[in-house]
């Protein structure tokens, strides 16, 4: 079985600024692979390298078991892509836009009608793209990416600028692709909610580094239950608790403790009270994937959220 | 084969663009301007430099305006517009992710601009013929006697296009290298102005400025006897090919950001 994407220790810098550091990825066949990270995490740079638009400074990229370097044209025949916004010519109709790309791909003319039907744009295919709504443009961009019956679809932020209905449509379409057409989808986004509902596998990037790679289930297991304790002497409580369990964070009077041992709420409470630390609030929490994502990516919003709690 | 496919796609992209309309508009403006000038002052405009044939006089005047001013500006704007089609909204990220060799995009765009220049020059030639047929009705003293000097006209037009190849490749490089429309048009406008003065200077003193790339197309019209046209054509075309090759190499190596 050919692994659609294999990235091995790839580095990429823009001058002195590192964009991607030691990135390794393995994208399984017929998966929807969510590639997550905040803005500036290195997602788009990675995607550009996957498509041969940029060259890595170090490391290797292979697609379908072949190195991208030297096999670019042959490999790109098997890939459809939409990087950031769809690339459309506003002075051409939807069909003409697809015709431009059909010529590059050398596929039969009927492929245009097929992809227009897939994205539900058949009725407006003859309209100039400048008169399309954002959602229609996005769907036409997807049609463009699907045109050559690709085995791998690389989508960079495909729901950017869409309204909730549009997001739902794109999400449903993307989710159906592996089953309907056997396509592997590599989907980048900065929105966990988007990827969480679509992807079977996930990778999380932050500041050019890979923070997590695995299945959605593995990610859920990683985001374990936590205990939140509010005390009158946080420093003393930190000293006591860090000896017996792992303290995730300490913000103000609140301590967040990972529930990775048998040390539960009752034991924590009894230990603190016994040592003369007054417990004013104690609650058990199950962080969402979003909390875990924010924690991994070190987003400032995560810290604010913890402080507020 | 792949080049032909990309060329077809490139031509489809031009549909409904101002670039395509300019192929007709630019030469028609020259033809109308010359028609107006000749209709007002037929003898002083058609018999400049001792030319005795009205057809040649009309052709010289039209090609002079075209080669000196309008064609360099036309090539400037067309190169910028053809490149701008894919600079806008950064279409490169989708085009260059297609299974097509990168050089074909560069060569196809170059061929499109050359073809547009050739078609426009052909329209000038047609305009000369139409003007020659209509002018005697407005100015009965002007006689466009047969035969029409086809070979001279075709040769002059071909030489003008051939000598435009070098500035065209430079202009194409600038247009593809920088996304900004102003950089491409600014370069072309400045070069055209320099060429204008270079032509004036060359007429009197035979200055080296006559070999300024943008001044080359005027050579066959302005001062043919003083030059070895075939040699000038061959040398400028060779340099043009080198410029195109460097530009293509630069285009293929560039990363899409």
Any overview of this molecule?
The complex is a heterodimer of chains A (309) and B (257). Chain A is built from 12 helices and 14 strands. The radius of gyration of chain A is 24 Å and the shape is elongated. Chain A has 309 residues and is of the alpha/beta class. In chain A, the strands form 3 sheets. In chain A, strands 6-7-8-3-9-10 form a 6-stranded mixed sheet, with helices on both faces. A 4-stranded antiparallel sheet of chain A has the order 2-1-4-5, with helices on one face. In chain A, helix 3 crosses helix 4 and helix 4 (110-118) crosses helix 5 (134-146). In chain A, a hairpin with a 2-residue loop joins strand 4 (58-63) and strand 5. In chain B, helix 2 packs antiparallel against helix 4, helix 4 runs antiparallel to helix 8 and helix 6 (102-138) packs across helix 10. The mean pLDDT of chain B is 90. Chain B has helices at 2-13, 18-40, 42-46, 54-87, 92-95, 102-138, 150-177, 181-205, 219-222, 229-253. Chain B is 77% helix and 0% strand. With 257 residues, chain B is mainly alpha-helical. Chain B contains 10 helices and no strands. Chain B is globular and about 65 Å long. Chain A binds chain B through residues 48, 51-55, 73-77, 79, 81-89, 91-92, 96, 99-101, 103-106, 144, 148, and chain B through 5-6, 8-9, 12-13, 15-17, 85, 89-101, 255-257.
Q: Helix tally of chain B?
A: 10
Number of helices of chain A: 12
Shape of chain B: globular
The most extensive interface between chains reads: A-B, 33 and 26 residues
Helix content of chain B: over 70%
* Count of beta strands of chain B: 0
Q: What are the secondary-structure elements of chain A, in order, as H or E? A: EEEHEEHEHHHEHEHEEHEHEEHEHH
Instruction: Give the biggest sheet of chain A.
Output: 6 strands, mixed
| Spatial separation of the terminal alpha carbons of chain A | 48 Å
* Residue fraction in strands of chain B: under 5%
Beta-sheet strand percentage of chain A? 25-35%
Helix content of chain A: 25-40%
Q: Mean of residue pLDDT of chain B?
A: 90
Output the helix-strand order of chain B.
HHHHHHHHHH
């Amino acid at each position: 079985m050919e692994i659609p994407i294999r990235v091995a220790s790839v580095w990429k810098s823009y001058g002195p600024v590192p964009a991607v550091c030691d990135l390794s990825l393995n994208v399984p066949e017929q998966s929807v692979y969510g590639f997550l990270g905040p803005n500036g995490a290195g997602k788009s740079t990675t995607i550009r390298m996957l498509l041969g638009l940029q060259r890595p400074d170090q490391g290797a990229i292979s697609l379908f078991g072949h190195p991208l370097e030297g096999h670019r044209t042959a490999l790109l025949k098997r890939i459809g892509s939409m990087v950031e916004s769809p690339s459309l010519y506003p002075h051409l109709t939807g069909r003409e836009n697809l015709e431009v790309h059909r010529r590059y791909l050398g596929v039969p003319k009927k492929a245009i009608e097929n992809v227009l039907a897939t994205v539900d744009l058949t009725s407006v295919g003859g309209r100039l793209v400048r008169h399309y709504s954002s959602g229609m443009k996005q769907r036409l961009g997807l049609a463009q990416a699907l045109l050559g019956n690709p085995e791998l679809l690389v989508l960079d932020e495909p729901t950017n600028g869409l309204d909730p209905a549009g997001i739902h449509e794109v999400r449903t379409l993307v989710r159906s692709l592996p089953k309907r057409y056997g396509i592997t989808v590599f989907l980048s986004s900065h929105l966990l909610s988007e990827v969480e509902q679509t992807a079977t596998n996930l990778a999380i990037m932050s500041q050019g580094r890979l923070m997590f790679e695995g299945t959605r289930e593995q990610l859920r297991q990683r985001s374990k239950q936590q205990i939140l304790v509010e005390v009158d002497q946080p420093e003393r409580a930190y000293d006591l608790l860090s000896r017996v369990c792992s303290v995730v964070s300490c913000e103000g009077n609140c301590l967040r403790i990972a529930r990775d041992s048998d040390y539960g709420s009752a034991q924590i409470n009894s230990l603190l009270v016994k040592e003369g630390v007054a417990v004013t609030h104690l609650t058990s929490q199950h962080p969402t994937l979003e909390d875990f994502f924010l924690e991994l990516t070190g987003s400032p919003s995560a810290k604010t959220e913890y402080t507020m709690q | 084969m792949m080049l032909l496919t990309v060329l077809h796609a490139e031509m489809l992209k031009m549909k409904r663009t101002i670039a395509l309309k300019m192929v007709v508009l630019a030469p028609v403006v020259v033809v109308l301007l010359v028609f107006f000038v000749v209709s007002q002052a037929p003898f002083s405009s058609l018999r400049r430099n001792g030319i005795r044939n009205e057809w040649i006089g009309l052709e010289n005047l039209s090609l002079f305006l075209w080669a000196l001013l309008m064609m360099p500006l036309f090539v400037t704007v067309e190169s910028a517009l053809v490149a701008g089609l894919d600079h806008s909204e950064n279409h490169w990220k989708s085009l260059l992710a297609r299974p097509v060799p990168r050089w074909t995009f560069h060569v196809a765009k170059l061929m499109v601009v050359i073809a547009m220049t050739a078609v426009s020059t052909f329209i000038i030639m047609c305009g000369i013929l139409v003007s020659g047929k209509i002018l005697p009705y407005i100015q009965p003293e002007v006689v466009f006697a047969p035969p029409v000097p086809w070979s001279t006209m075709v040769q002059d037009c071909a030489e003008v296009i051939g000598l435009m190849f070098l500035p065209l490749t430079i202009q194409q490089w600038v247009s593809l290298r920088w996304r900004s429309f102003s950089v491409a048009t600014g370069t072309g406008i400045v070069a055209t102005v320099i060429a204008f003065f270079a032509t004036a200077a060359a007429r009197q003193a035979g200055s080296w400025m006559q070999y300024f790339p943008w001044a080359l197309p005027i050579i066959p019209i302005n001062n043919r006897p003083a030059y070895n046209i075939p040699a000038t054509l061959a040398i400028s075309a060779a340099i043009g090919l080198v410029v195109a090759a460097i530009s293509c190499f630069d285009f293929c190596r560039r990363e899409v950001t």
